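We treat protein structure as text, and this decision shapes the records that our systems exchange. Because each token names a local backbone shape, the row as a whole describes the fold. For reference, a complete record is included directly beneath this paragraph.
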Amino acid sequence: MLATASHIWFWQTPSWNWGELWALLVLLIVSILPVRVTNPDGTSTTVTLFVALVNGTDGRWSTSKTSAVFWTYSIWFAFITILLHTNGKGLEHEILEQQYLVLMGVPVGAAVVAKGIVQGKVDRGEITTKPPAPPEKSLLGGLSQLVTNDKGAPDLLDLQYFGFNLLLLAYFFTRFLGHEKFGLPHLPDSLVALSGVTAAGYLGKKGLERDPKPAVPPAPPAPPGP
């Protein structure tokens, strides 16, 4: 009887706001699931699933990976909220606009292409990658890595790419939270376009990166003749 009452309460009473709360709890639980990753020295470290998803092989948080994870979580959040609030019926007529396909695909594509560019440059000896390192577990440390280059210096293109994605995410949640009638909101085309442009700039930067060649000292003067 208690199980039946719980089932009825869970599926019949969640308002739109309660559905959002349940969706947030689901994502938080998924994000903090412990995952063991192997360190370069062969030892293992336990990190949360979120940290494992956004880290690169050098232990730094990847800008493109983090953007892809954030948009994946956002779509999950919206669909879980609709699922819980409507008992599943709200998903039958929900249309995922092409904007969301772009925003899901661009960060994933950027991550794949960036990895291919970097690996190709390493194979040709044009750059040297940082040695593998344990994943960055600090939230503040990881966030700072999203807008800096591999040397830790602030990077304008990384900042633009991640910043426009954050702006779009803020618009998405502003329109979605508390507005049941809106469903998945239509995003401003200008911001979606800027997100794509900055992704292209981010990849262009990856393509142009080179390690500086060591300076060749001038040849010593020839000794005077006899």
